[in-house]
Amino acid sequence: MNKKIFVVEDDMHINEMLCELLGQNSYTAYPAYSGTEALLLLSQNKYDLVLLDLMLPGKTGEEVLQETRIKHDTPIIVLTAKTDKKTTVKLLQMGADDYLSKPFDNNELLARIAVQLRRSAPLNTADKLSYKDITLDLEGHDAYKSNKKLGLSKREFELLRLMMERPKKVFTKNNLYESVWGGEFFGDDNTVNVHISRLRTKLNAVEPDQDYIQTVWGVGFKMKE
């Protein structure tokens, strides 16, 4: 089921751009253009994550954040033009789960959304994830192919899990690095390539003739259909 993301941004162009970006990446986006409208819709609907601008007409973003936190634990990523430490620390203290400074990189935003959705996933959801004959034991952090244990490292497991959760999506190296390692990706960093290569080697060791990870040249990686 597509995750529902609530986009609270009064700039119509930015709001439409965000909704289009989310739709292109298998999310369902719901827009709001003021703080007052946002609080009304939050009281009537359940969303998986909120993207919240601060400079809003009606109720401010800070007011929306405070009032939402009283009733909901939905992950909230604040989009802000304010970059001083005092403001960002205050936002986190008020209940924001993350923040991103404007102007932001779309790939970084998508990576941060993926991280927050993964962190907020209920512990009692299905503890296994499958794609073809690959199975991930999410609780035990073990991976199996054709019922044979793969012996993946933590990073290899997380890379495979991320791609298996959305097998049709092409993940850029930036997406993968920021989601799995949690830091800023630099273009000359070969870390992702090395771990993808190791992951492929371990998958091929079980069944050499079958390839599961597809390289999309000039873009990134995805699960092979």
The largest pleated sheet is described as:
5 strands, parallel
What portion of residues belong to β-strands?
15-25%
**Radius of gyration, taken over Cα atoms and rounded to an integer in Å:** 19 Å
Order of strands in the sheet with most strands? 2-1-3-4-5
Number of domains: 2
**Spatial separation of the terminal alpha carbons:** 19 Å
What is the name of the CATH class of the largest domain? Alpha Beta
Strand pairing plus helix content: what structural class?
alpha/beta
Provide the residue-averaged pLDDT.
87
The third-level CATH topology of the largest domain is Rossmann fold
Shape, please?
Answer: elongated
Low-confidence runs (pLDDT<50, min 5 residues)? none
How many DSSP H or I helices? 8
Q: Could you say what the CATH architecture of the largest domain is?
A: 3-Layer(aba) Sandwich
H-E string: EHEHEHEHEHEEEEHEHHEE
DSSP strand count: 12
How much helical structure, as a percent, in the residues?
40-55%
Write the CATH homologous superfamily of the largest domain: Response regulator
